[in-house]
Specification:
Number of strands: 2
Shape: elongated
Order of helices and strands: HHHHEHHE
Strand content: 5-15%
Largest sheet: 2 strands, parallel
Strand order of the largest sheet: 1-2
Structural class: mainly alpha
Radius of gyration: 19 Å
Number of helices: 6
């Protein structure tokens, strides 16, 4: 079994952890290089439905991780569903302290989510 030190200092990357190197490369690459995909709203809605992330459920009791939020194609509809679920349950407490732990989103690239259109 290899030690943790041996795993972190690979001969092919003597000064960097492979994970750190991969994150560094991905965070500085362009859309084409990293294979960014922009998902249409109806596809997002279908996937959220398949995952059971629907506003008829108490979504504030669930946790959602969006590992690459990009322009918010999944993140914004998920938040809309979370707020709709919250309102449906008749909650009237301050929403931010309670719902802030319900969604986590990560993005390596400096992009700003687009605002939803209604």
């Amino acid at each position: 079994m290899m030690s943790a030190d041996a795993l972190q200092h690979q001969p092919s990357l003597p000064t960097r952890c492979p994970i750190t190197e991969a994150v560094s490369i991905l965070s500085s690459s362009g859309v084409e290089e990293r294979g960014a995909i922009y998902t249409r709203r109806e596809v997002v809605e279908f996937i959220l439905d398949l995952a059971g992330y629907t506003s008829d459920r108490p979504l504030h009791k669930s946790r959602l991780l969006e590992p690459s939020f990009g322009e918010g194609d999944f993140l914004l509809p998920a938040i809309e569903r979370l707020l709709e679920s919250w309102k449906r349950d008749g909650k009237n407490e301050d929403v931010l302290p309670i719902l802030s732990s319900s969604v986590r989103a990560i993005e390596l690239h400096s992009v700003h989510p687009k605002m939803p259109t209604y």
